[in-house]
Amino acid sequence: MSVWARNGPLSLAYGWGYVALAGASVVMVYGRSIFTLITAMLCSKNFHSKVLRNVLRAPVPTFFDVTPGGRVLNRFSSSNLPHFGLCVWQFGFSILSVLVVCAETTRACG
């Protein structure tokens, strides 16, 4: 960055290098988020099907007679929405921070 600032507009290639790094950062953060989302969905799908299979194969007197239906439903439907919302906010702030850094760098050196 200091080389770019010292040499002025003749060194525009350094600026494009920083733009490329910022773009690569955005793409990598997006890719990481998509990978995490797909992995979490596959894990939860496998976990849910195993739990459902075990509940459906459980002997009736030992599970369903002593466990209320609401408790069974609650075990399957615990909300993941707060965690998903947190991930969305984190991804949005990551992109926003990259844009702010790029804008401030361009304004300060341009």
Provide structural commentary.
This protein is mainly α and 110 residues long. The protein has one domain (2-109). The protein contains 5 helices and no strands. The protein has helices at residues 2-7, 12-57, 60-63, 69-76, 81-109. The longest helix has 46 residues, at 12-57. The radius of gyration is 25 Å and the shape is rod-shaped. It holds the Pfam family ABC_membrane. The chain crosses the membrane at residues 16-43.
Task: Please describe the structure with a list of short key phrases separated by commas or semicolons.
mainly alpha; transmembrane helix; repeat; ABC1_TM_sf; rod-shaped; nucleotide-binding; 110 residues; 0% strand
Write the topology of this structure.
Layout: H1 2-7, H2 12-57, H3 60-63, H4 69-76, H5 81-109
Helix pairs in contact: 2-5
Put the structure in a nutshell.
This protein is mostly helical and 110 residues long.
Supply Rg: 25 Å
Shape: rod-shaped
Number of strands: 0
Biggest sheet descriptor: none
Question: In terms of per-residue confidence, which ranges show pLDDT below 50 for 5 or more consecutive residues?
Answer: none
Order of helix and strand elements from N to C terminus: HHHHH
Query: Helical content, roughly?
Result: over 70%
Number of separate helices: 5
CA-CA gap between termini: 12 Å
Strand content of the residues, in percent? under 5%
Q: What's the average pLDDT?
A: 81
Structural class: mainly alpha
Task: Tell me the count of domains.
Answer: 1
